[in-house]
């Protein structure tokens, strides 16, 4: 037996509802119209029903009053003509008089009033089809207490005389008759309202059919109007997506002079302006990139000459006077820094030009981290900083460009040494089935939220006046972010003033995969499992 997945259907309907303005507009219009038409139809049906019943009631009570008067006249005249009257004959005459004043479908019953003493001198009489159970005790009591010629009525359900089952609505009108020598009798006239009900049913069917037709018509009109409006909006949305994807030549069709045409013309003017500005910015960016690249290349030749001359002076500094020797040392240090700056500028120009190519190989990241720690060990010893490697295990090789990952680690470790205040630095390596992660955590001065927002900006430093051991160029973290991005990874930062900072590099195991999370939390757990810890 097939089972219906209601949750899947509901999810599809929800997506369809959220994703289509046309469906939402038409559905809301149809539902609200149906509610309004239902309320109006119910009010009209109720008004018609009440009006038909009131009119029929007036007609019935008028006939019943005439019939009661005629019957009582027959009984009174019989008493005046003779004291010894034949009550059966008089009752026949009274019944004939009643029938002459009411419709042929009216049921007639003349019943002795309950609670009277003495024998019953006149038999009860009722039309064929009259059901005494339709007379309620309340109606019988009201007729008895009402007096002669006082009418009382009640709505009842009349069983159908045909073979079909069911009942028809009706009205029973009762009055009291005084029969000479026989006491009080109750006259009941039963009127069927089947014709009124048939009229009401026809009106209700007409209202239902008309209401459904009107709802469908409103839905069709709403669909047509929404299509005329939403169609151009959808075209505008598709054109906007193409513009966002880089197809700057896309434009909206301009037809007519209405509001949509005005929107199309305004949109096209905006697209033209954006295209011009983007091209100008792209041209300026290319000029800037080429300028930086050309300047960097052109400076390498004189810098090489200066470096050679500076090395000669640096090697002979012991024979110079102290002031000259100090000058040779400064020249050597700044020349080295200038070389690093040029190398970083060339690397950034390659990223800006999109000319970076990776050379990925399966690499054990723990071994790579150990090499990076060994490279900065002299700087750490000079600061009195202990670097601890925490590798719980479970890691595997990852497809990375080891040269670029090593450069990221050296930048992060150098910054941690500079800002770590001589406190221990923890380096975490962990992995899961899809990703590997490396985190460098120091316990130094930390950064504010404003500093974290700009920490990857080019040439930006959190504290320019602070003395740096590594003498960076201000491009290290910017290049590290580009190196992580070109691997398809993430470089995140966490920091709090006086609690230190943590930079986390997360990479996919396979090059080209997407990073969905990281096996190392931010900040990392300060108390890892000692059984799986490799601390140094």
Can you give me a brief rundown of this structure?
The protein is of the alpha+beta class and 536 residues long.
Task: Describe this entry's structure for a reader.
By secondary structure, this protein is an alpha+beta fold. It has three domains: 23-200, Beta-Lactamase (2-Layer Sandwich), CATH 3.30.450.20; 260-353, Helix Hairpins; 361-532, Histidine kinase-like ATPase, C-terminal domain (Heat Shock Protein 90). It has helices at 6-19, 21-81, 87-101, 137-146, 194-244, 259-315, 322-353, 365-383, 402-419, 449-454, 476-486; strands at residues 107-112, 125-126, 152-159, 167-179, 183-192, 361-363, 387-390, 398-400, 425-431, 435-441, 490-496, 500-508. The chain has a five-stranded antiparallel beta sheet, with helices on both faces.
Entry keywords:
alpha+beta; 5-stranded antiparallel beta sheet; single chain; Heat Shock Protein 90; Beta-Lactamase; 536 residues; Helix Hairpins; 5-stranded mixed beta sheet
Which helices and strands, and how do they pair?
Blueprint: H1 6-19, H2 21-81, H3 87-101, E1 107-112, E2 125-126, H4 137-146, E3 152-159, E4 167-179, E5 183-192, H5 194-244, H6 259-315, H7 322-353, E6 361-363, H8 365-383, E7 387-390, E8 398-400, H9 402-419, E9 425-431, E10 435-441, H10 449-454, H11 476-486, E11 490-496, E12 500-508
Parallel strand pairs: 7-9
Antiparallel strand pairs: 1-2, 1-5, 3-4, 4-5, 6-8, 9-10, 10-12, 11-12
